[in-house]
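TL;DR need structure tokens for one chain.
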Amino acid sequence: NAIGKPFTSPHSNEQLLQHCLRTLQSHKSMLDGECAQILILGTHKDKVCECKTETQEEKNEKLKSLLLPAFEKDVVCSGIGWRPIFAVNATSHAEEDKKVAEEVRQLVMKDTSTKPAEIPLRWYALEL
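>> reply
TL;DR here they are.
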């Protein structure tokens, strides 16, 4: 893939996420139940209204069905209730988006390990 060209895959985002979760589950079982925290950052909040197939709440419910109960203690959630998607417009300077970005930064920094972690490049292609 050339720089600036979108990542293309024969698999759906859901299939890629399921693969990542199976990998995490495998590593979790090898590490006596220890797992890295899972944080889902939706960076195209400005495009939510363009999605005709499901609402953000339906996406949260779908993620809930994929993540629970195996990763209940490992998922970082946003706001009240079990809502795993942190929705932000990455190109916006709006106060609401700045608050979400700060919330994410605080949550990430709270439990940051100084130990480096290898992350497969294909995981960066996930967008919900």
